[in-house]
Amino acid sequence: MVEDELKPLMLASLRGEAAAHRELLSRLSGNLRVYYRGKLARIGRSATEAEDLVQEALMAIHMRRHTYDPAQLLTPWVRAIARYKLIDHLRHTRGSMSDVRIDGIDPLVEEDAAAGVESSIDLSRLMAGLPEKMRTAVQAVKLDGLSVAETATKFKMSESSVKVSVHRGLKALAAMIGREKLS
After folding, report:
1. Where is the RNA polymerase sigma factor 70 region 4 type domain (predicted)?
2. Domain count, the chain
């Protein structure tokens, strides 16, 4: 990631410039895609998982942007989010974290309780914009931590339907984030 190109976009994004925010997310998506594909390919995981992680990381960056300290470097903050999303994904999919090198990344800035409340409100609003089937699948798999099989059983769906709904739901959320005007 190129700090000199990304940080000005983040600062403009924080000032409410929607075009800068879209450009930031677009540039970050390429970097995140390379990162996740490389990490997951080493342990035989799919490119689809990498794409899901890209969308999750972009959502987290969007929702947590208010926690970024402009006096600090941007790339360690982004890398920390990417790292924690990877760890969570491996934990929920029972992947072997010992097979994926995740060290060498700065820790995430601590977040206060009020920031967490603001994020969940933002996420709730975004989730409300999804069709029910997608919203249910994303909520169960990505937020509640259920497996695809557990979600399929619980909501009487096929596993492939759950996977498609989650993938399309994450894609739709990313599109909503990209279109959203910043306050």
Report:
1. 122-173
2. 1
For 66, other C-beta atoms within 10 Å of its C-beta total 13
The pLDDT tens digits of the residues spanning 101-136 come to 544 433 333 333 334 434 444 667 778 888 999 999
pTM: 0.55
- Residue 44 belongs to domain spanning: 3-179
176/167 Cα distance (integer angstroms): 14
Long-range contact set of residues 15-22: C-beta below 8 Å, sequence gap at least 24: 16/181, 16/182, 16/183, 17/182, 18/180, 18/181, 18/182, 21/62, 21/178, 21/182, 22/178
